[in-house]
């Protein structure tokens, strides 16, 4: 990042139009330096764009190999002593680069931000009190200093690239670049918010610090991956007794600290009004350290905590306020209202409802505000206890702005079971006989980040050394979001720790018992009560995240099967489902809510599988789906096991035929290849012949363009069977007996019906619609069109719930 050679620095300063004297005058004074640089002319700027997945597969493989080789080589190199660079030189080049980054952000569209995950990360588990102080001069590069802590303070304005970059100095005045990864509050943060999060002059103790050599031979840097390794110290902290900073007591122009309760409140409120909830909560907390009895600071912090969804902490603040016997009448309703909101957020609907109801009675002026909450409590309760959701309303909300939904979690007739044959050792089984279409799980994402969380567009790519994949999208910042959850909800760490983190970590406990959210006392946000083990979190996210797209208006066949969708999310209970390429349940999302339904009847005790994605036609193409294959090792689902038994040559043959079919242009050619393809599936249940579905769909499309409607219909009927359905009325000519008009033309297949094709929802509904349109259009057979419409709505309801109403929302042109 920084110019290394003195001549480069000089050249840069010439470009800036500043002299060495100017720099010396501003040394140790970031604000003066900032002013100096703002009067300078910058010309050396050009956008630095990342190379994304467009590099192609070989590019990714090369990048992965290079990264691995670099880390491997680093490991074999001996640590070298840290040599301090002249402070002035560091300050100038840092400021130059900071301004360059800010300017690029202003002038250019989204920059590709890149990072690598899966390298060794040290999480300090030793409390600061037990660590011994170390200075930069005493440290080595390429080394983690176990048993030590570095006392340092921030001496420049920070800047956010992928991580937050800032210069720090130690007590001796030696300076070093610090890169802080995964820091709560930094997702999508503006430069101003980053400055509020990392004020100049802040004193930090870095537990068990690591100095790294920069990737491209630059200056060594202090790299902090786990935010809990950073401990913020107040100026009057006892750790600072007797500490003398070589460059003076104060870093020049560090912001003046508020001194009264009112000033702390003002600072917090100003952050809050900007929507900067973490800096707001930190300001209120710092004020509370000095004015611990302040109800106003506690109540305002509760407000910030509510925004951050730290409900346990918000409740703790409100309850502490309500215990105050001298609480003013004006604050009482505020405290009650916020406590009730916190209870609601924690899913304690009964208590929340009681609080809102009591409050409405006691403070009639607040009744209008409480009324909608009371209704919400009733809705959430029936969702959580009976699985009764208004899917139409939820779907409509999901089509609107924002990325979050307000729905209760629900667990249907399933339970967690020990299944030692799978990585992680657990899976989900049916508690009782489950019926096709039954709702199994509704789960709110634990970690979820989408483009809506960014004021300005940003694009990310991660080279994931855990899965050997290049991930593109918001999954890159999910560890930051996980850290943000843990920062204000220590119980969240417990939930994450119980998920499978891959073979390099201790297996999770076979019991999955996530404590219900309770009261958590977060007395000082960003003072982590739990160590945030980012390495393990990266493993959990790599092995459990889903790439999600919210359910939207119905379309015809999915055209883009690319895995590179934007949003990646972690859902707690759904993480425990194992994968099958031929699953018996399917999942879809409404924004940050995942919904799981049975796609066939599942007998009690049977395992329930989801398809994680990658519904490839053949064993070989599924195995090539790099991410899926790498996550599973070798997939041990029924279909892959069956394919392995069939043998490699059969699988190769199948793939060859399937690929020929995709390029066929005549009905005859497709038909003849379909016959050959079918022969490769001898002995397979119908619903496990997914390649036959794709091949028949191709035949249907070609037949459509040649107006061979009999063939179109026959083929579409077959398509449904390959998804695990049975067409009960295969007639497509003559009068439809009145008696059969009301019956469904399709039902769940019973033979081989213990599984269904992986995309029964979208594909099955679309195939039914195609049949209905063929009858209603060219054939002008209104009776059969009506019958097939009924069948379509039935299937849609089984897959997505919401009856005819939801169907008509998603397919407004079809129900006329
Ligand atoms: C999201 S976890 C599933 C839950 C996990 N079994 C647990 O106990 O937490 C994904 C991991 O489960 C294992 N797994 C799931 N489905 C599998 C399959 N079809 N074949 C092999 N391993 C599978 C793999 O180790 C995979 O990385």
From TrEMBL:
Domain of life: Eukaryota
SET domain mapped to chain residues: 412-613
PROSITE patterns in the record: SET
Official protein name in the record: SET domain-containing protein
Organism: Tulasnella calospora MUT 4182
């Amino acid at each position: 990042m920084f110019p290394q050679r003195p001549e480069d620095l000089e050249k840069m300063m010439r470009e800036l139009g500043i002299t060495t004297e100017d720099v010396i005058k501003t040394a140790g004074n970031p604000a003066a330096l900032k002013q100096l640089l703002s009067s300078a002319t910058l010309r050396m700027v050009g956008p630095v764009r990342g190379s994304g997945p467009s590099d192609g597969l070989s590019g990714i493989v090369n990048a992965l190999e290079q990264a691995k080789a670099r880390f491997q080589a680093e490991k074999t190199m001996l640590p070298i002593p840290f040599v301090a660079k002249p402070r002035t030189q560091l300050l100038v080049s840092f400021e130059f680069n900071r301004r360059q980054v800010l300017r690029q952000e202003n002038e250019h569209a989204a920059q590709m931000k890149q990072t690598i995950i899966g390298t060794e990360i040290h999480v300090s588990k030793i409390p600061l009190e037990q660590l011994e102080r170390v200075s930069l001069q005493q440290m080595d590069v390429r080394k983690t200093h176990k048993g030590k802590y570095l006392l340092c303070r921030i001496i420049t304005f920070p800047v956010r690239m992928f991580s937050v970059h800032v210069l720090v100095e130690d007590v001796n005045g030696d300076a070093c670049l610090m890169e802080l990864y995964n820091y709560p509050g930094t997702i999508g943060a503006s430069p101003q918010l980053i400055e509020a999060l990392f004020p100049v002059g802040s004193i930090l103790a870095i537990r068990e610090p690591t100095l790294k050599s920069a990737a491209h031979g630059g200056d060594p840097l202090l790299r902090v991956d786990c935010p809990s390794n950073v401990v913020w110290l107040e100026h009057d902290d006892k750790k600072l007794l007797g500490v003398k900073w070589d460059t003076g007591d104060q870093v020049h122009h560090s912001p003046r600290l508020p001194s009264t309760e009112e000033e702390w409140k003002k600072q917090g409120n100003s952050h809050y009004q900007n929507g900067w909830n973490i800096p707001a909560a930190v300001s209120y907390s710092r004020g509370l350290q000095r004015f611990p009895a302040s109800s106003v600071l506690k109540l305002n912090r509760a407000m910030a905590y509510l925004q951050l969804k730290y409900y346990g902490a918000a409740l703790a603040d409100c309850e502490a306020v309500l215990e105050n016997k001298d609480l003013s009448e004006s604050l009482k309703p505020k405290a009650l209202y916020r406590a009730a909101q916190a209870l609601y957020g924690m899913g304690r609907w009964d208590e929340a409802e009681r609080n809102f109801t009591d409050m409405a009675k006691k403070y009639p002026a607040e009744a209008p505000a409480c009324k909608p909450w009371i209704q919400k409590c009733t809705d959430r309760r029936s969702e959580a206890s009976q699985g009764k959701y208004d899917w139409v309303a939820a779907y409509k909300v999901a089509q609107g702005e924002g990325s979050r939904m307000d729905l209760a979690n629900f667990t249907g007739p399933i339970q967690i079971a020990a299944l030692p044959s799978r990585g992680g050792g657990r899976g989900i089984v049916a508690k009782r006989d489950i019926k096709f279409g039954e709702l199994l799980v509704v789960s709110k994402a634990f970690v979820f980040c989408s483009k809506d969380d960014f004021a300005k567009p940003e694009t990310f790519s991660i080279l994931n050394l855990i899965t050997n994949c290049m991930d593109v999208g918001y999954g890159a910042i999910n560890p930051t979001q996980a850290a943000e959850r843990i920062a204000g909800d220590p119980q969240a760490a417990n939930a994450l720790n119980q998920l499978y983190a891959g073979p390099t970590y201790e297996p999770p406990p076979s019991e999955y018992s996530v404590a219900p959210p309770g009261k958590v006392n977060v007395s000082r946000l960003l003072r982590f009560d739990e160590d945030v083990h980012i390495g393990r979190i990266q493993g959990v996210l790599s092995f459990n995240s889903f790439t999600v797209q919210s359910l939207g208006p119905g379309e015809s066949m999915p055209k883009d099967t690319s895995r590179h969708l934007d949003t990646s999310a972690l859902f707690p209970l759904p993480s425990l489902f194992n994968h099958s390429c031929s699953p018996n349940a399917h999942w879809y999302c409404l924004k940050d809510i995942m919904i799981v339904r049975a796609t066939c009847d599942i007998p009690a005790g049977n395992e329930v599988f989801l398809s994680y994605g990658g519904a490839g036609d053949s064993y070989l193409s599924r195995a090539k789906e790099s991410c899926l294959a790498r996550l599973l090792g070798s997939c041990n689902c029924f279909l892959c096991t069956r394919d392995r038994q069939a043998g490699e040559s059969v699988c190769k043959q199948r793939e060859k035929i399937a690929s020929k079919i995709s390029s066929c242009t005549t009905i005859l050619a497709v038909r003849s290849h379909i016959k050959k393809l079918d022969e490769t599936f001898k002995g397979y249940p119908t619903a496990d012949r997914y390649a036959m579905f794709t091949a028949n769909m191709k035949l249907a499309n070609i037949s459509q363009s040649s107006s061979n409607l009999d063939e179109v219909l026959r083929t579409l009927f077959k398509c449904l069977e390959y998804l695990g359905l049975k067409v009960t009325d295969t007639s497509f000519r003559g009068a439809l007996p009145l008696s059969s008009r009301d019956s469904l033309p399709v039902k769940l297949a019973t033979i081989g019906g213990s599984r269904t094709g992986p995309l029964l929802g979208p594909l099955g509904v679309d195939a039914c619609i195609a049949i209905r349109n063929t009858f209603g259009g060219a054939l002008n057979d209104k009776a059969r069109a009506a019958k097939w419409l009924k069948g379509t709505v039935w299937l849609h309801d089984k897959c997505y719930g919401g009856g005819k109403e939801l169907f008509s929302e998603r397919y407004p042109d079809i129900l006329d």
